[in-house]
Amino acid sequence: MLLQLNHIKPYFQLFEDTDLKTLREVVDVDLYSYITITKLLLQELIARDATLVAVSSAAGKIGVPYAAVYSASKHALHGFFDSLRLEVYMTHPSSKMSITTCVIGNIDTESAKRVTAGKVRHPTRASPDDTALAIVTGALRKQREVYFPRLEVTPIPYLRAFFPSLTDYLIVNSMEAPPNRDSSLPSGAGAN
């Protein structure tokens, strides 16, 4: 048995410009729905030695401009499934249930192109078919994590850990800059 959780609330805008309703929807879809479905099916998954696949994002490993709440929900998703994996190992040692978390980068879907249009400079995007194959292959191999596209997303946690300023620079420079809003701040605000 395989359960794949792969749903997303399209969202890509500055946190400062995001209304509270949208913030709640992003967390509900991108985090809470994964947790709820898992809770409802967990005993069955354990009993059947199932594979649970949680499709996440590179934004779950590193912060991304225009995606603060999405990134927060995906970071939480990784923490949840990493913790759940350990709980299942501890409480059901005879179960062969596995949890695979997928760290997915830039994929060539209409939704991704639409929400990032004018905000992200993408030299390339992986095909949805290749992405699906990587996810299924990783699940069948019972990998803990699947990184795809591999060359794009695998280095991200290491770059962040060892070269945080360089990583920030690269991410910011892969984005189209929003209008400068400093003129609207009181004197001295926003300075670090």
TrEMBL record:
Transmembrane segments: none annotated. This is Hydroxysteroid 11-beta dehydrogenase 1. InterPro entries: 11-beta-HSD, NAD(P)-bd_dom_sf, Sc_DH/Rdtase_CS, SDR_fam. GO terms for molecular function: oxidoreductase activity.
